[in-house]
Amino acid sequence: MTYFFLLMDFASIEQKWQERWYNSRIYEARKEKGKKFFIHFAYPGISGYLHVGHMRGFTYADIIARYMRMNGYDVIFPAGFHATGLPAVSLAKKVARGDEDTI
């Protein structure tokens, strides 16, 4: 049985698509006054753990963002982590006092 992925040159495939995305400037913001669309996904908080359910929710948001972009909208879909509130303060205090389990 031949495993097709052993025959693939992933480095050249990656380079091809990175060049195409760079040259098309698809992810650069434009100052045009077009249709705008904002979507956000609620990432896990600082005290939570990333699990497969987060990926499921993120996938839905990603599909919507891509769909809107294909339909001519200027889409902003920020990526990041939610790190506010009491859990963040509690974690900062544990790190400040040198809690080995946290660090």
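The record above closes out task 2.4. Task 2.5 opens with a second protein, given below.
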Amino acid sequence: MAGRTQSPRRPDMTLSSPAIPRGPTLVERLPRGSALLVPALLFLLLFYVYPLAQLIGASLPGGSGKNYALIFSRPVFLRVIAETFRVSLVVMAVTVLVAFPYAYAMANAGRRALLFLTIALLIPFWVSLLLRSFSWIVLLQNTGLVNQVLLGLGLIEKPLKLIRTETGVILGMVHVLLPYAVLPLYSVMKKIDMRLMEASSICGASWFHGFRRVYLPMALPGVMAAAILTFTLALGFYITPALLGSPRDMMIAQMIAGQFSEQLNFGLGAALAVVLMGLTALAFALFGLGRVLLARRAAA
């Protein structure tokens, strides 16, 4: 009716389910920028984790560990593993000893000298590893430069046998691995304040005493990084020992290649590869333990 006021609408009293607040999704819970890691993770899964799983599966045919039992029961395999460790340790020690003064010179050089030393260090990367190994054959042969210089200086009466020997293998590997030792050493040494050495000299310490008690402890992180990098790379060397060494100097990478390409024993070759990775992981663990002990000793 006209004049009748319309009563207000009553609120709906029917019960409804309470609104549940939506929590953050898995993607939202990730730290900001983590999505950028997805391509790298996919790459690692596809080209590292999956092949590694395939390799481990090939080393265990039918779930049997007979290949590993064969490796650790045959003296020839144990000898090659021990030889690989021994040669890698020697190469590591020689490489770090040669790299230390070179990195020291780089850390204390002027701009032009640093540029020259850096170019001289990185030039070998422009040449393939195969060509560098062949160049050592030319240098170390009986009529090569090394023997001719030693003969000319009267230090030897007849040419030394340097090809197909362990000495040739070590020289070639040290040459290849030298940049990998110099760069981590230089990155640490360039941050060391040389005024500390001057202060130790003012306090009456000799150069050697100041170097041993002041400079060397600060350079130890670089030494450890160079040592673990060169040692782990030396464990898997193949081309240089194959060209410069003899069958007596065979390393585990050569034996792995022989099992795959010559013996066609893929299961045993895969097992040897897994053993090599295990030895590399063990080396990382030992070096990591050494760094922890050195850090605790320095903090004490």
